[in-house]
Amino acid sequence: MFVILKFIVDRNNSHYRLITMGWEGKRRVHSCLVHLEIIDDKIWIQRDGTEDGIANDLVAAGIPKNQIILAFHPPEIRQHTEYAVT
Questions:
Q1: What H or E segment, with its residue span, contains residue 58?
Q2: Is the pLDDT assigned to residue 1 strictly greater than 90?
Q3: What is the CATH architecture assignment of 2-78?
Q4: What is the 8-class DSSP label of residue 65?
């Protein structure tokens, strides 16, 4: 098994991605683990494939929950989270 993590930063468009890529035996591995965007000074979590949730890490780093949007949830669900809606 040969799988690596790559962090891709697009500062011009405020996109940040963590991807996995490599090989598991004869099977190609290539997927997006985390995708964040900064829109209107808020962090939009577009994809979170981490075990504990990247939002928890952001809060632990001092980012307030009202600055984090769980964009992977439909808008009608976001209002029931502890995080920002938009």
A1: helix 54-60
A2: no
A3: 2-Layer Sandwich (3.30)
A4: G
Residue 17 pLDDT level (bands cut at 50, 70, 90): very high
Intra-chain end-to-end CA distance of the chain, in Å: 40
DSSP state of 60: H
In tens, the pLDDT along 50-79 reads: 999 999 999 999 999 999 999 999 999 999
Distance separating alpha carbons of residues 69 and 51, to the nearest angstrom: 18
> Residues 75, 76, 82, 86: is their CA dihedral positive or negative?
positive
Q: Are 7 and 17 in contact (CB under 8 A)?
A: yes
Distance CA 36, CA 17 (A): 6
Rounded Cα distance between 5 and 78, Å, is: 29
Cα 23 to Cα 27: distance, rounded to the nearest angstrom: 6
Provide the pLDDT confidence category of residue 84 given band limits of 50, 70 and 90.
very high
